[in-house]
Amino acid sequence: MDDFESKVGDALAAPQNQGEMADADAVGTVGSPECGDMMRMWLKFTEKDGKKVIDRASFQAFGCQTAIAVASVATKLLQGKTAEEARHLSAQDLAGDLGTLPPMKIHCGQLVEGALRNALDPTDAPAPKPQNSLIGDIHSAKPQSIRIVPLTD
Ligand code: FES
């Protein structure tokens, strides 16, 4: 097992900040038509030193182990960040101490990034294409291409 897989295993052994946040200020939900996985992220803001910063973040995932591990790390990493700082975090940034995302796992980090961006800027997220079905797109997936689309309840 390589170092990345080992760290993912550690993160999965005790995932942090899983579950719905009843008093959240923002929520973002995205899905990956390519792999069928989904991620929802909740954010709660607070005032600190005159700035509005993320106090808490939590997530729920219907996804692979890497996406869950990245989300777990990301929810800790987001604490204390302003919305503007959070907007600039890439999938790789959100993976934090897990290390460099392997090429086949980059889209797993992008699922977390997509949920975060959707929570921060719900109107900026790309609109889903109505003609696409989740199942249909899974079968037409191209390697290394991913679209993260916002989902509604
Ligand atoms: Fe879909 Fe990892 S395989 S998010």
Overall average residue pLDDT: 87
**Radius of gyration over alpha carbons?**
15 Å
CATH topology: Sufe protein. Chain: A
Main beta-sheet annotation: 4 strands, antiparallel
* Low-pLDDT runs: 126-144
List keywords for this structure.
153 residues; alpha+beta; Sufe protein. Chain: A; 4-stranded antiparallel sheet; 6 helices; 4 strands; binds FE2/S2 (inorganic) cluster
Structural notes for this entry:
The chain has 6 helices and 4 strands; from the N terminus they run H-E-E-E-H-H-H-H-H-E. The protein has one domain: Sufe protein. Chain: A (Alpha-Beta Complex), CATH 3.90.1010. Mean pLDDT is 87; it is low at 126-144. The longest helix is centred in the last third of the chain and has 15 residues, at 106-120. Helix 1 (3-13) packs across helix 2 and helix 2 crosses helix 5. The chain is α+β, with helices and mostly antiparallel strands and 153 residues long. The protein has helices at residues 3-13, 65-77, 83-87, 91-95, 106-120, 134-139; strands spanning 26-31, 38-48, 51-62, 149-150. It has a 4-stranded antiparallel β-sheet. The chain is 36% helix and 20% strand. Bound molecules: FE2/S2 (inorganic) cluster.
